[in-house]
Amino acid sequence: MKFREKLARFFYGRYGSDQLNNFILILCVLLLIAAMLVRGPASYIIRGVSLLLLVLNILRTMSKNVTKRRAENAVFLKILYAVKSFFIRQFNRIRYIKSYRYRKCPGCKNHLRLPYKKGSHTVKCPRCGTGFNVKL
To answer: Domain tally for the chain?
Structure first.
């Protein structure tokens, strides 16, 4: 049996790589770079954490428990989406400060982008239909 066939047979049914594995690998590389810049015992701690992350990455890649790895990746993507949308929302607040204001609906907590008009206005949420007063 050729080496290539043996390798293919070994990797059959393994989970492989996903977004969480990529994030762990990038974090590992960044920690190794930070360990090169730091002197003393902190460098050894950072290298140890980086090594543990690398082992975790390899174990996740070689795992045959595909459903558990997919669930872990789904939780990671949910957290990543929340963080990403927060920063995008903050960037847009600054970008469109002259023409829009952002407010939360008191009913459903949805973020609304309202056109900038001076004074007090009544706004109706398009998601839940709650009406509330906004002073811009």
So the answer is: 2
3-state helix, strand, coil in the chain (%, to 5): 60, 15, 25
Residues 71 and 110 in one domain: no
pLDDT in tens, 5-34: 988 888 888 888 899 999 999 999 999 999
* Statement to judge: residues 44 and 79 lie in one domain: yes
Structural domain range at position 15: 3-95
Return the structure tokens found at 58.
Answer: 């390899």
Q: What percent of the chain has pLDDT over 90?
A: 57
Place of tokens 């174990």: 59
Residue 44 and residue 10 share a domain: yes
Q: Exposed, middle or buried: residue 60 (CB in 10 Å: 0-12, 13-18, 19+)?
A: buried
Provide the 10 A C-beta neighbour count for residue 55: 11
Return the exposure string of 74-108: e unless at least 16 CB atoms fall within 10 Å of the residue's CB, then b. eebeeeeeeeeeeeeeeeeeeeeeeeebebebeee
